[in-house]
Amino acid sequence: MTAEAYGRFYDGVYRPLVSAFHGRLIDARTIQAEQREYAAERAEFIRPFMTNSARKTMLDIGGSTGVVAAHFAKEFGMRGTLIDPAPLEVEQAQRLGLDTITGLVEQHDFGTRRFDMVIICQTVDHLLDVAGTLARVRQLLSGDGLLFIDIVDFRAAYLRNWSVEAAIKIDHPFYLTERTMVAYLRSSGFDVLRSDYAADHLHVSYVCRPGHADVDVMPAVASVEEMLREVRFVQNAPHRM
């Protein structure tokens, strides 16, 4: 989809489609309890980097209802700004006292604004352009800024379900692994300070700082070939395995 079409997709189509896919109501209200648990867990992951920190401004890209951004802002004494393409979810975020932008980070003009922290929570898999967004984030971060980002590890998902199809999500244009995410980060000019597995054993989180861009970095060819063989094996193995 184009960026314009993607914006329309999130304005009224996305949540009903995902609700139908999962067979239960998933909307701007029902997701907030899960988001609160996630926010508390990930705040503890970030906390060592925020002790005695002078960071005051935060941008949450794809921040949904603002539950995570509001929790981080309260815990670490920051002013939070949220950008998300879904108007109903942005409306919920406004009620939490966040500055809000309805739209896509790929399109919005931030002017000269810079942020001490950027968070991309359970969102990178939804982006239209991972490399372009990370390059934009690199520009938006202040000199001592931090990036928090996490992925659904596609390999962990298909091994858990023993099926590639069962690991697919209807709203994910991208399927990332630990190796591909680190390559994206390094090629975009980020150094990984810490990585960690979330409690669900599917998400992998990263805290990063601006660094030197290694534009030629790629996952090793052997590791890619190994994964493709594994995918083929999973798809053809008996289901009882």
CATH architecture: 3-Layer(aba) Sandwich
Span between termini? 37 Å
Helix-strand category: alpha/beta
Strand content is 15-25%
Number of domains: 1
The level 1 CATH classification is Alpha Beta
Largest sheet: 7 strands, mixed
Q: What fold name goes in the CATH topology slot?
A: Rossmann fold
- CATH level-4 homologous superfamily: Vaccinia Virus protein VP39
**Which whole number gives the mean pLDDT?**
91
Strand and helix map with partners:
Elements: H1 3-10, H2 14-22, H3 32-46, E1 57-61, H4 67-76, E2 79-84, H5 87-94, E3 99-102, E4 115-120, H6 130-140, E5 141-152, H7 154-161, H8 164-167, H9 178-187, E6 190-197, E7 203-210, H10 221-236
Parallel strand pairs: 1-2, 1-4, 2-3, 4-5
Antiparallel strand pairs: 5-7, 6-7
Helix pairs in contact: 3-4
From the structure above, extract its key features.
241 residues, alpha/beta, Rossmann fold, 10 helices
Structure commentary:
It is a single chain. Helix content is 41%, strand content 20%. By secondary structure, it is α/β, with parallel strands linked by helices. The protein has a single domain (3-236), classed as Vaccinia Virus protein VP39 (Rossmann fold, 3-Layer(aba) Sandwich). Strands 3-2-1-4-5-7-6 form a seven-stranded mixed beta sheet, with helices on both faces. The N and C termini lie far apart (37 Å).
